[in-house]
Design brief:
The protein is mainly α. Helix content is about 75%, strand content about 0%. The chain has 11 helices and no strands. α3 runs antiparallel to α4, α6 packs antiparallel against α7 and α9 runs antiparallel to α10. The chain is elongated, with a radius of gyration of 20 Å. The chain starts with a helix and ends in a 5-residue tail after the last helix.
């Protein structure tokens, strides 16, 4: 398997940043966060200019509970990313960390930035709507949910989008639209009842 091959390669060349980065990625994907952080951090120290694994180092840090370090990593990665889509995803990962630490204003700003970088990505619109909804800004959340649905939000997220848009309509006393959205959510995921 890949991890065994990388271990063998690193026995022969223990300071190879490319091998360390690949092994760090494998460790992240297998849930071995401590080893992922160790390998990715070491790869970054050995080759700071060539390091490309900000996503996996940030995710490893965030999944281990170090949201502040993860946000720094995602911010640095977004700064270096030349591709707008890659930059948008890194900013969205930072937004998730901000949400988890309770900084909803910054989370909303980050999701708005991700949406502006990648306007065709429905997930960013959904998450922006969700954060706005959490901030009791239902009137601003509804257009985000509308846009996410219009852009073709993945079915995994679609029931939640209908549910949260329905809750927003309910809060705004638009019962007909709320019920229609709750029905749409239940049609996709009957276990929501």
């Amino acid at each position: 398997d890949s991890l065994s091959s990388l271990n063998t390669a690193l026995e022969m060349d223990p300071d190879n940043p490319a091998f360390l980065a690949r092994r760090g990625r494998c460790n992240y994907m297998t849930g071995n966060l401590e080893n992922a952080i160790e390998d990715l951090t070491r790869a970054r120290v050995l080759d700071p200019d060539g390091f490309q694994e900000f996503e996996y180092l940030g995710k490893s840090l965030g999944d281990s509970g170090d949201y502040y370090a993860a946000m720094i990593c995602f911010s640095q990665g977004a700064e270096y990313a030349e591709d707008p889509s890659e930059r948008a995803w890194l900013v969205s990962y930072k937004a998730r960390c901000n949400r988890l630490i309770g900084d909803l204003d910054q989370s909303a700003a980050d999701y708005a930035e991700a949406s502006s970088l990648e306007p065709g990505e429905p997930y960013f619109q959904f998450m922006l709507g969700e954060v706005l909804w959490l901030m009791d800004r239902e009137e601003e959340a509804i257009p985000c949910f509308d846009r996410a649905i219009e852009l073709g939000l993945q079915e995994d997220y679609l029931p939640g989008c209908y549910l949260e848009r329905g809750r927003s309509y309910l809060f705004l006393d638009d019962l007909d639209k709320a019920v229609a959205d709750f029905d749409s959510a239940l049609a996709i995921r009957p276990d929501f009842s």
